[in-house]
Amino acid sequence: MKPTRFETAIALIDKANSEDISTYHVAGIEYPKELLYSQRMTRKLLQFLPDASKALQIAARAQHICRWKIARNEYPMDRVGYLKWRETLKKMHADLTEDILRQVGYDDEFIDRIRKIILKKLIKKNDESQALEDTICLVFLDYYFEEFAAKHPDEKVIDILQKTWVKMSDKGQQEALKLNFSEKSLALVKQAIS
Question: Known InterPro entries for this protein (predicted)?
Fold first, then answer.
């Protein structure tokens, strides 16, 4: 059976992300870092919102597409440089995703909808942009937080948790509290949100 446009788009996003030379080890298996991240985004989105639209599923899968192509150190190593880097990345992610979606035959309206989600336009007002932000935060908390917390002082970890928390919807926050944190991490989370 011929794959659908949606399946082809996901496969092309995965193909692009599989070119990441940075790797991440899970259970003794080495994965291209952004491929693993994008698959975790899909898994977490569908746990969080089982009826997520195809547009939101594509946006989640492509949210970090080819992220390694623009290195953080290409921008000043301060807050302004960081924010500029993030904005440039979002635009690149949206552009690369648009190219893939045009290739598989999606129309302008659908593509524009996905661009808005990836660019996180009208966050807190657009349900799909907010759902993407919630998913990003949930993926960080579920898969990357313990490792991050182990490398940084508690004050910095609490600050990051507080910044993460305010980006999330009430529903996202409730979902975050269901995650399986270590005792120390749970204590930090409680401290951050109290």
Answer: DUF4202
Strand-pair partners of 32: 23
Tokens 């975790």 belong to residue: 40
At 38-82, the pLDDT tens digits run 999 999 999 999 999 999 999 999 999 999 999 999 999 998 999
User: What does the alpha-carbon distance between residue 5 and residue 66 come to, in Å, rounded to a whole number?
Assistant: 21
Mapped onto helix, strand or coil, the DSSP state of residue 119 is coil
User: Which residue has 């960081």 as its token pair?
Assistant: 82
Residue 23: beta bridge partners?
32
The DSSP H or E segment spanning 42 is helix 33-48
CA angle 173, 42, 108 (to 5 degrees): 105
Say if residues 96 and 16 touch (Cβ distance below 8 Å). Answer: yes
- What is the reported pLDDT for 126? 83
Q: How far apart are CA 55 and CA 42, in angstroms?
A: 12
Longest dimension (CA), the chain: 54
Relative to beta strand 23-26, strand 29-32 is antiparallel
